[in-house]
Amino acid sequence: MNDIAFASATKLAAMIRQKKISSAELLELYLKRVEAYNPALNAIVVQDVDRARKDAALLDRRLARGDIAGPLHGVPMTVKESFNVQGLPTTWGDPAYKDNVAKEDALAVSRFRNAGAVVFGKSNVPLMLADWQSYNAVYGTTNNPWDPTRTPGGSSGGSAAALAAGLTGLEVGSDIGSSIRNPAHYCGVYGHKPSYGICSPRGQSLGTIAPSDISVIGPLARGGADLMVALDVMAGPDDIDGTGWKLTLPKPRLPGIKGMRIAIMANDPIAPVDEEYAGKLEALARPLKKEGARVDLAARPDIDMAELWKVYVLLLRAATSARLSPAQVARWTEEAAKRGEDATDYIALMARGNTLPHRVWLQLNEVRMRMRQAWAAFFKEWDVLLCPVAAGTAFPHDQEGERQDRVITVNGEPQPTTTQLFWAGISGVCYLPAAVAPIGLAKGGLPLGVQIIAGPYQDRTAIHLATLMEKAVRGFRPPPGYEADAPEEKAEAKEPVAA
């Protein structure tokens, strides 16, 4: 049964339709695994067991009548804590919202239910979704199933950890600063950051309804085909926008890797990457060429990457500045004045972004739109750009001080953790789709993933290559120690780090 727990959502749905396993049986399998493994991981922090059992039983009765709810009929799944699920708390890890119980499902959650998924819980996040670690004072710390002393990533860290450990069938997260992509990379699973605006974020909030700049919602899974199915479920306008526009994403240009035009950007001096990781990214050229792709290690868009980095941080911090208190605004206004307009370090850019006048935002948006044109021109010649997701593998838990003051070690040198946000912004700031697929393990045994960036609205192309690479390069592999259904020894596993 443990093989079933690690199956892709599309395979699970097929098994249910073929009546090889019932939805109720599959749900109980995952609940049993959550009971056994989750205490040491703390990935799933809220459960909705009674409702899930009723939903699974209903779906099994519908199947017996030949009534299929949708492509995910009967598949148990969890969702990121930031999504509203009717009757469950939505806190974003903030104790001030511990009693905030959702009155209705987020639109994405409702769409997954309509597609037949059985939502049985919520996964952990960092405070206000603002870290590449997933810990908070409400639910505590989530550990990486490959190494409990390390982060699973953030802010969709609980999502990726639960998938990797075989605790759920599918997940949905959000991404403004690699919050889908870095957890997928750190935990060895798949993730997709959709093109901006194609998936309505309604109900993924703390009471606000206006969508944020750059931020998107998207799926995480154990296979590329799952990402495609989940994107089809999620994507499309809400009921207001749907009165005026419909979504039609282009199909991939080619059926296979043969003939694909693939550029690889394995490193950049703005955000240096671990040499072993960069080497593995460049080495992808071999299997891709073997499959008949045209691969180039030097092709780049006509964009000043230093300018892209600056624009991304300023617009990123402007996008999240609405959450700041008056005292925080005053602090960052003083910090910006002290550092001056010419400073380009992350904290200086953060200070200016947090206090950005709208006139300056409009000027930066003009620069972004010119960059979007440059990207569009690049993707007329190339189908995808492969690049890093982060600077290296998952880093050890570090909960001291402010995030922007913490450092990681890259090639033996200290690097601010925020520097690797460059790899989030390279696609994010210009609204491009980006899928993440596992490509193997580093020498230390931790997962590595590749970011597959495609042209504007070419989401299917990015996911298509991620799916094809399962055979050409590597697919999902579970972390060691999670093979059994409910081993006694896991009860003695290392406890989560206290928040």
Overall description:
The chain has 499 residues and is of the alpha+beta class. It is built from 16 helices and 15 strands. It has helices spanning 2-5, 9-17, 23-41, 49-64, 107-114, 157-164, 181-187, 224-234, 275-283, 285-290, 305-320, 326-339, 346-354, 358-381, 422-428, 459-472; strands at residues 44-47, 76-80, 118-123, 135-136, 140-141, 171-175, 190-193, 216-221, 261-264, 294-296, 384-387, 407-410, 413-416, 434-441, 447-454. Strands 6-8-7-14-15-11-9-10 form an 8-stranded mixed β-sheet, with helices on both faces. Helix 11 (305-320) crosses helix 14. The longest helix is centred in the C-terminal third of the chain and has 24 residues, at 358-381.
Structure at a glance:
This protein is an alpha+beta fold and 499 residues long. The protein has helices at residues 2-5, 9-17, 23-41, 49-64, 107-114, 157-164, 181-187, 224-234, 275-283, 285-290, 305-320, 326-339, 346-354, 358-381, 422-428, 459-472, and strands at residues 44-47, 76-80, 118-123, 135-136, 140-141, 171-175, 190-193, 216-221, 261-264, 294-296, 384-387, 407-410, 413-416, 434-441, 447-454. It is built from 16 helices and 15 strands.
Count of DSSP E strands? Answer: 15
Query: Average pLDDT, to the nearest integer?
Result: 96
Structural class: alpha+beta
What would you report as the Rg, rounded to the nearest angstrom?
A: 21 Å
Portion in helices: 25-40%
Largest beta sheet: strand ordering: 6-8-7-14-15-11-9-10
